[in-house]
Design goal:
The complex is a heterodimer of chains A (308) and B (336).
Chain A: H1 2-8, E1 13-22, E2 36-46, E3 51-55, H2 62-69, E4 77-82, E5 85-86, H3 92-101, E6 102-105, H4 119-129, H5 136-149, H6 166-177, E7 184-188, H7 196-213, E8 216-221, H8 227-230, E9 233-238, E10 241-247, H9 248-253, H10 258-265, H11 272-275, E11 295-300, E12 303-307
Parallel strand pairs in A: 3-8, 3-9, 6-7, 7-8
Antiparallel strand pairs in A: 1-2, 1-4, 4-5, 9-10, 10-12, 11-12
Helix pairs in contact in A: 4-5, 4-6, 5-6, 6-7
Chain B: E1 5-16, E2 19-31, E3 36-40, H1 47-54, E4 63-72, E5 75-76, H2 82-88, E6 93-96, H3 100-103, H4 110-122, H5 126-139, H6 145-148, H7 158-170, E7 176-180, H8 188-205, E8 208-213, H9 216-222, E9 225-230, E10 233-239, H10 240-245, H11 250-257, H12 298-302, E11 308-309, E12 318-319, H13 325-334
Helix pairs in contact in B: 4-5, 4-7, 5-7, 7-8
The chains are: A alpha/beta (308), B alpha/beta (336).
């Protein structure tokens, strides 16, 4: 799979045979805690300007993949490259220049804001950390610009998080994430906690920012419903493995793995005539854990399925 | 025949340090025996609070029932004593809440938790209750029920825990089952299984159900009647097909339009409802959706529209709107 992509262009982000296990430590009495392979031999690449959707249910390892990718946690094994440089296991000072280029947006816009900081300070904080604003007024101007970019009135800068609705708070988080002009953003379920009438706003904002700033996204989601509007390619994860990856259209029009089919059919359709006569494809995760020896095999242009 | 439940002018407020929150404003509706009512709304729409306040499950203070009646089976629930409510809850009205992890007691076996209402309401012995618990676990599709009954909540997966919650909800054969975001915390494939189970249970035991959710898709598959709430008010209600296929409230219309409909990246842009959810500390005057409604008239901002029959629609389809959505959409289309 890596050959086909690298032939075209160098990817912005590339993940090679990434593993992250938890547990397995010897306890005081000699027994070992159970070993959990949260991420198991995961490889993918993301081209500059591309959005890759990473979809899976709770426990699939999708969020861990995102966190390890940004070096918020160390991988057990495997390699992460960013703009062609191997960044796996770099020390904090060595990592700092890369941090500017790689940002994350979390699911819960309430928990990820600092309640004692005005939202203006919060958005401007990365500029201070990286010493990018030479004066107070320059900092103000840049923060005001960021507010406008995400659709917030700069007059709100002096306010505190509790004064905002969920959608506005997520806009604040997005403003902070783009403050350092990053190339790459991991968005970990950024719309899941938002109200239905707000989700479309944020999905559209993600797209507008990509068009305007040329951002590259890893968009993590627990279902496929919004993926088609946002992503160029999708990877479906099940119990730490990627079971299917391919262009968005191929995944939606021609899903090959039974789990992908189950995920697609599980999205309730907001039309009573369709929804009432639909039988979702059932899939028992516990009975279908991918065998260790399974490998991704090509089934179409850039479309791969995990097979034993 | 009298309806099973009749809610009249229910109004609930919360007195908070930052002002009075008008959570539920003048909500009236009925539900017939055997009906499944889907209540759709976002956070702050009043959908959960109104259901909890009907059976005395909101904290007072800060909560306060300003006015209204909730007539269930001929009795006004808002006039009942705590003691009478205890006898009613779990027996005549069953509940299923969102998060099975926090609603189940982690230190009690599943059997004890399902048996508790059976012993309390029917005075069953432990042996009688045990037989019923196993029967209920089988009914909600938990395999190996006799063994599983003796296990603790942490030994169950999220979906299985929610099945346990449903078993508790229906244990005493309630006349009414209220499910509040009962599948929201579940994985989508598990949600699909639970929804299948609920449809199946409806066929088997015919309980009247109020299914509260933010998900239009879930309601489309489950409900006979749908009721759309916003800012503590009912914006629209009616038979599920007419509301989904011929919505008359700009909010319902916008919600349906903003959902992904198989569009593609770069080809279609999602319709977005502008603005933000309403500030409920403001006095509830006018149509709460007016500030976000592109079709709002001047009247919408100053006068609250009553919930009335929708013109040229089926019986029971009601809408609260001063504007005419169909006319507004037709004009919009006609514009070059």
């Amino acid at each position: 799979m890596s050959e086909t992509l690298s032939a075209r262009q160098q990817p912005l982000v590339s993940v090679n045979r990434l593993c992250k296990t938890y547990g397995g430590e010897k306890s005081f009495f000699g027994g070992a805690t159970p070993l959990l392979k949260a991420v198991n031999n995961v490889s993918f690449e993301i081209a500059a300007g591309e959005t890759l959707g990473l979809v899976g249910e709770s426990g699939s390892g999708k969020s861990t993949t995102g966190r390890v990718l940004l070096q918020l946690e160390q991988p057990t094994s495997g390699e992460i490259s960013f703009k062609g440089n191997n960044i796996t296991g770099l020390s904090k000072p060595m990592l700092k220049p890369y941090r500017r280029d790689m940002q994350i947006i979390f699911q819960d816009p309430y928990a990820s804001l600092n309640p004692r900081m005005t939202v203006g300070e919060f958005v401007g904080e990365p500029l201070d950390v990286h010493r990018l604003a030479t004066s107070r007024s320059e900092r103000e101007d840049r923060v005001a610009g960021l507010f406008r970019k995400v659709g917030l009135d700069p007059a709100f800068m002096k306010r505190y998080p509790h004064e905002f609705s969920g959608g506005q708070r997520q806009r604040v988080n997005i403003a902070r994430a783009i403050a350092l002009d990053p190339a790459f953003i991991v968005a970990d379920e950024p719309i899941t906690a938002l109200d239905v009438s707000i989700q479309a706003q944020i999905v559209n904002l993600f797209q507008d920012l990509q068009d305007e700033l040329g951002l590259t996204y890893l968009f993590i989601a627990h279902d496929l419903s919004m993926i088609r509007y946002l992503c160029h390619r999708v990877a479906v994860m099940l119990r730490g493995r990627i079971v299917e990856v391919g262009p968005c259209e191929a995944i939606f029009e021609n899903p090959q793995h039974p789990y992908t089919r189950a995920l697609l059919s599980a999205i309730p359709v907001p039309d009573p005539d369709i929804e009432r006569n639909r039988r979702p494809v059932s899939f028992d995760v516990n009975a279908n854990i991918p065998p260790e020896a399974a490998v991704l095999r090509p089934v179409g242009e850039g479309h791969f399925v995990l097979e034993a | 025949m009298a309806p099973l439940l009749e809610v009249r002018n229910l109004t609930v407020a919360f007195d908070t340090p930052s002002g009075t929150v008008h959570a539920v404003n003048d909500v009236s509706y009925t539900i017939e025996e055997g009906e499944t009512l889907g209540i759709v709304g976002e956070s702050g729409s009043g959908k959960s609070v109104h259901a909890l306040s009907m059976v005395g499950l909101i904290a007072t203070p800060p909560g306060r029932i300003v006015r209204g009646e909730v007539v269930f089976n001929g009795r006004d629930l808002l006039k009942l004593s705590q003691r009478e409510l205890l006898d009613l809850r779990g027996k005549e009205i069953g509940f299923v809440f969102q998060d099975p992890m926090t609603s189940l007691n982690p230190v009690l076996t599943v059997e004890r938790q399902i048996a508790e209402p059976l012993k309390r309401h029917f005075g069953m012995t432990s042996a009688q209750a045990r037989a019923r618990v196993i029967e209920l676990l089988e009914l909600v599709g938990i395999p190996d029920a006799a063994r599983r009954a003796g296990q603790y909540p942490h030994e169950f997966s999220g979906g299985m825990r929610q099945r346990v919650m449903i078993a508790i909800g229906i244990s005493c054969n309630p006349k009414l089952l209220i499910a509040d975001e009962a599948t929201t915390a579940l994985d989508v494939t598990v949600q699909a299984q639970i929804l299948d189970l609920v449809r199946d249970l409806k066929r088997k035991i015919g309980t009247t159900v109020i299914w509260i959710t933010h998900d239009m898709g879930v309601v489309a598959g489950l409900a006979d009647t749908v009721q759309v709430m916003y800012g503590g008010r009912i914006m629209e209600r009616g038979p599920v097909r007419s509301v989904f296929h011929d919505p008359r409230s700009a909010y319902t219309w916008g919600l349906l339009k903003s959902l992904p409909h198989g569009g593609k990246r770069g080809v279609t842009r999602l319709y977005q409802i502008p603005g933000n959810p309403p500030d409920l500390t403001r006095d509830p005057i006018g149509d709460p959706f007016a500030p976000r409604n592109p079709f709002a008239t001047d009247r919408c901002k100053v006068e609250t529209p009553p919930l009335v029959d929708a013109a040229d629609s089926v019986a029971g389809h009601k809408v609260a709107a001063w504007y005419d959505l169909r006319a507004a959409l037709a004009t919009q289309e006609a514009r070059p």
